[in-house]
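User: Predict the structure for this protein chain, please.
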Amino acid sequence: MNTLTVLSIFSLGASVAMAQTPSIFHGADLKLGEKLIAENKCVACHQQKVGGDGSAIYKPAGRINSPGFLRGMVEQCNTELNLGLFPEEVTAIGAVLNRDHYRFK
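Assistant: Here is the predicted structure, written as structure tokens:
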């Protein structure tokens, strides 16, 4: 395989991934989102609210039904808990949650 072919395949894969990511999360820093989720102990808070492993909070009977609403819920946590997250950090967390739990396209 030549370099041009490899680059074409890589580019196609990146294009498919972008097409599957809601526009609100395009360019989000997933590593930052993962780091912020861990640092702010989001899982522990969710476990306190819903019990178990906390994952039940992610799909409460259709409450979160769009990428924008998902990002808004992260912003709500940011505001209520006075986390002091910047908009790009809220988006990064939302992108991770979308990737791992919601899978909006």
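Residues 3-102 form one domain.
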